[in-house]
Design brief:
- There is one protein chain.
- By secondary structure, the protein is an alpha/beta fold.
- The protein is 29% helix and 23% strand.
- It folds into two domains: 219 residues, Medium-chain alcohol dehydrogenases, catalytic domain (Quinone Oxidoreductase, Chain A, domain 1); 135 residues, 3-Layer(aba) Sandwich (Rossmann fold).
- The radius of gyration is 20 Å and the shape is globular.
Amino acid sequence: MRAAVLERVGEPLRVKEVPIPEPKTGEVLVRVAACGVCHTDLHVIKGEVAFPTPCVLGHEISGSIVALGPGVESLKIGEKVVSSFIIPCGGCYYCLRGEEDLCERFFSYNRLRGVLYDGATRLFDKDGNPIWMYSMGGLAEYAVIPATDVFPLPEGIPLEEGSILGCALFTAYGAVKTAGLEGGESVAVVATGGVGLGIVQIARAFGAYPVVAIDVRPEKLAKARDLGATHALTPGEALQAVRDLTGGRGVDVAFEALGKPETFRLALDLLRDGGRMVPVGIAPQGMEAGVEITRVVRRKLRILGSYGAKPRKDMPTLLRLAQAGIVRVGTEVTDRFHLEEADLAYRRLDKGEIIGRAVVVMGGET
């Protein structure tokens, strides 16, 4: 099969022929239809997030099941499926508490070592040397995924565009749930890329008003309005305009979806007293954002970190929202690339040229 391999940090992704992986007990083999293009992969490419190389990135996929490992009974060959970037082990301390977004094995095995939960990768080069997996290693024609993270795609959701349910929309849904958002609350979304656009959609679905989109790019603000934002502002005008919209107080909830100190601080500054700020953007390792301690204490501000969502609880709900058209999956996808263009996709993402969410499509029948 073909796979886009990152041989070393800072090098281009190169498409290579590698053996098709085989599923083990409790796993499935998926023929990948499409894989979303995410900033977190870009952090790995640039060396801003540590991960072993050589590796195959790509962590939000859609496709069709072509083989089942021993013990998999709830899924069928031929089913169209999606997978979230968090792969719950199902048995660690946090998974047993229903906190799969904190799965211990996912972080210690996959995110630190690039392996699945038997301590081994499923990807190798032609000489048998290991290639490490970022989540399932979705920038490839086939991917092995534990069955705990494979969900049938409902009818009516386009297969390729549906890949972004696995991270962009999954992360957005988790952020809105983390915020405890209630109908009628006011919301600001700082940075409206793929995840930010998802937050806009889902916040409106939860009944938020106003929903204020904030970005430096007019094209992204236009897309945010198309997906449900009631107001669209640049960072320079956001503070005063949000105060004007909320009677001088600020919003109930501010989401930050880029992972930069300036956007983190802006989201905090937009809050009313007692408000909640939910950061979801991943930053380069070690990056900090200065916070005024006294304001956080006296004004009872809450900072609620949110990383993805809970796959087995939240993904089925998200799929129902998408099937009902409440979350518009296809509209978020603004750019499509072939696998051979995967490196170009991330270079364009790095330059800020992707308006919504890009997907890499594998081609062929699925």
